[in-house]
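Action item from last meeting closed. Structure (328 res):
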């Protein structure tokens, strides 16, 4: 109490000094969004449901597709991202894949990054109304890099740069790739930013515990489209389609192709790392939408992924409210 209020307190209490003023602080909620490629569209549904329940996160951390959804949410662009995701078709997905056989990734990622920059422009992470971190991995050192300031679109691009598929991104002299290599579900980052309660979202829940590789048939569909596009160009030798198919997809009886090997190897690594990190640093609440029927490259199935995330979170409304209340 200050000024006149303090004077009245002393007058009414025989000149006794006023008691220290206490301010009740609301517990800060952190939302950690995991990687999972196309399955990560489910994060949009989760966020929608959390807001309806009345749980609005103060801190958002994301890895890979989780960084894309989390960054757009923090920037107030979730509506635009949802409209874009729901409008994707197989043809539109393929239109975003600028093949780059001569570089350090099969896809340069320029078309996708330009699309992101169109919506976010020069948005900087430190200017966002919510605290946000995108997680990436530094090539060469294996360092886990938390991008908490600088260009938001650039941070997103580095966080989803799947090794071998997308080209690495250079930021401040560091070559960065997908953060799922070191921290698939960035719970630790949310706690480090000051979250009292952490809600995590794992799009890979129904894969964990099996210890097996789930073949992603949809990756072949996209690769077949890419091969057809490349080999249709003037001047391409007649057997180019056969060679590219063998390299990217593999033969019917031979070993899998490059893209299948890279994606499935990455999924195995992400699975093992996530399980280890979750055991050592579990969230206060884990939301695990069942998305096993959606392939990692099924970006055109956003409607399904978003709806599953929404319904899963709504069913957990009571648990979420009770957990937040008990820890507040």
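Sequence:
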């Amino acid at each position: 109490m200050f000024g006149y209020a303090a004077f009245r307190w002393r007058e009414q209490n025989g000149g006794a000094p006023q008691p220290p003023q206490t301010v009740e602080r609301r517990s800060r909620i952190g939302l950690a969004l995991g990687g999972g490629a196309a399955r990560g569209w489910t994060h949009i549904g989760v966020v929608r449901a959390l807001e309806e329940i009345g749980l609005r996160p103060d801190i958002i951390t994301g890895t890979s597709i989780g960084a894309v959804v989390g960054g757009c949410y923090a920037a107030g662009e979730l509506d635009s991202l949802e409209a874009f995701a729901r409008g994707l078709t197989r043809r539109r997905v393929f239109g975003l894949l600028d093949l780059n056989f001569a570089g350090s990734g099969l896809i340069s990622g320029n078309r996708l990054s330009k699309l992101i920059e169109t919506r976010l422009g020069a948005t900087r992470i430190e200017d966002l109304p919510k605290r946000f971190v995108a997680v990436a991995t530094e090539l060469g050192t294996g360092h886990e890099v938390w991008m908490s300031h600088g260009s938001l679109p650039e941070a997103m691009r580095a966080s989803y740069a799947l090794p071998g598929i997308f080209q690495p991104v250079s930021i401040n002299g560091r070559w960065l790739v997908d953060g799922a290599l070191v921290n698939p579900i960035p719970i630790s980052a949310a706690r480090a930013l000051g979250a009292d309660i952490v809600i995590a979202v794992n799009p890979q829940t129904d894969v964990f515990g099996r210890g097996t590789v789930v073949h992603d048939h949809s990756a072949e569909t996209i690769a077949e489209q890419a091969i057809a596009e490349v080999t249709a160009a003037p001047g391409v030798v007649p057997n180019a389609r056969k060679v590219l198919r063998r390299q990217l997809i593999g033969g019917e009886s031979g070993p899998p192709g490059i893209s299948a090997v890279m994606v499935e190897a990455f999924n195995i690594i992400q699975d093992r790392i996530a399980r280890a990190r979750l055991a050592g640093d579990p969230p206060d609440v884990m939301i695990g939408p069942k998305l096993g029927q959606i392939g990692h490259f099924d970006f055109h199935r956003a409607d399904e992924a978003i709806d599953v995330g929404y319904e899963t979170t709504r069913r957990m409304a009571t648990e979420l409210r009770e957990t937040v209340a008990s820890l507040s």
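Note appended to the action item: The first strand starts at residue 29 and ends at 33.
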